C-alpha cells in the first residue's frame, strides 16, 4: 500500500466512519453489529484501492452500499437467526478440581496395570515430555522399540480405562 492510498483511506475513515456507524445502527438496531458493518466496509475499501480513486462522493456512496449489503447479509445469516442476545453475561463456572482428581486416579490405576516397559515410556513421554530419541538413549533401546512400546502401551492403557468404565470423550 502506498502512502497516497493510506492517506485517502484515512481520510475516508475520518470523514465517514461515524456517520456510517449511525446508518448501520439504524439498519441493524445493534451497536455491536454496526461496528462490524463499518469495519467490514472500510476493510473492503482498503482491499479495493480503485474505489478510493473515484473521488469522495463515489467512495461515500460505495461505502454505504457495502454497509447496507453486509448488514442485510448478516441479518439473514443462520447465526443471526439462531443466536440469542443477552444483556447479562452467564455465570462463570467455578473451578472444581473433583473431575480432574477423579481422572488422575483413573489414569494412575490404569497405568499401574501396564507392563513396566510400557508404563515407563508413556509416563516419561507424556508427563515428562521426553522425545523418542531421548527415551531410546536413556533406556538404551532403539527408537523403533520405544515407538513400539508406546503404541502397545497406549493400546493397553485405553483397554484398561475402558474396563474401568471410561469411554472416549
UniProtKB/TrEMBL annotation:
Leader sequence residues: none
Molecular function as annotated in GO: DNA binding; sigma factor activity
PROSITE patterns from the UniProt entry: SIGMA70_ECF
GO biological process: DNA-templated transcription initiation
Residue ranges annotated for the RNA polymerase sigma-70 region domain, each copy included: 15-79, 110-158
Family label: Belongs to the sigma-70 factor family. ECF subfamily.
Name listed for the protein in its UniProt record: RNA polymerase sigma factor
Organism: Lentzea alba
